[in-house]
Amino acid sequence: xxxxxxxxxxxxxxxxxxxxxxxxxxxxxxxxxxxxxxxxxxxxxxxxxxxxxxxxxxxxxxxxxxxxxxxxxxxxxxxxxxxxxxxxxxxxx
Length: 93
Hints:
This protein is mainly alpha-helical. The protein is about 85% helix and about 0% strand. The protein contains 3 helices and no strands. The longest helix has about 35 residues. The relative contact order is 0.19. The mean pLDDT is about 95.
């Protein structure tokens, strides 16, 4: 399984990093991560279509693993977005 951002040490480092970033950079980072999520979700849909069309069981299993890895990354990215939202809100008072 892939290593994701939701590991406690990485989350702490990410929280410290975003606390130092200018507000504009936080907004840009949020947009960048949201774009990444959109691409991963589109990729998963395309892979699911491929799985439905192929008859190669080994290939299907490998592609299912890719979807699982993408989903893990998406979870971590959504958590990052929530952390960024919290930091923006904290600064807004």
